[in-house]
Amino acid sequence: MRSDFAIFIMVHGKPDRMFTAPTLRKCGYTGKIYFVADDLDETLGGYRSKYGDDLLVFSKDDIGRGLDAEDNSKDYRSTLYAANAIFELAKGVGIKYFMIMCDDYTRFIVTG
Q1: What is the model's pTM?
Q2: Long-range contacts of 83-87 (CB under 8 A, 24+ apart)
Q3: Which pick of 49, 64, 85, 103 has the fewest CB atoms within 10 Å?
Q4: What's the pLDDT tens digit per position in 44-53?
Q5: Can you give the pLDDT at residue 67?
């Protein structure tokens, strides 16, 4: 596995219901995984205790200032913010190549 590759999993609101990371491991992925949460997540403490240094937190307000969400409702419920924050977060941890996933992607794909 390349040292400059990682999977970034966008997480929010359910630190005890993570399907993607265990499924990746079950399928044989041995590389680095980072969990990406926003600073407005009320369950951030749960993620911090569970993932430690593998949790990367970004400011939704800061990233939102540089984006046009094409929505004037001020509703931040979108992966748009995390997906855009990952580019800078990846640089910060020395990752050049990455894949972005959601915290519940694989529960619909993998059975058994």
Answers
A1: 0.85
A2: 83/10, 85/36, 85/38, 85/58, 86/8, 86/10, 86/36
A3: 49
A4: 999 999 999 9
A5: 67
* DSSP-assigned letter for residue 108: G
Q: How many residues does the chain have?
A: 112
pLDDT at residue 40, as a whole number? 93
Position 26, amino acid? K
In angstroms, what is the C-alpha Rg of the chain? Answer: 14
Q: 92: Cβ–Cβ under 8 A, 6 or more apart, which residues?
A: 56
Q: What is the 3-state secondary structure (H, E, C) of 42-100?
A: CCHHHHHHHHHHHEEEECHHHHHHCCCCCCCCCCCCCCHHHHHHHHHHHHHCCCCEEEE
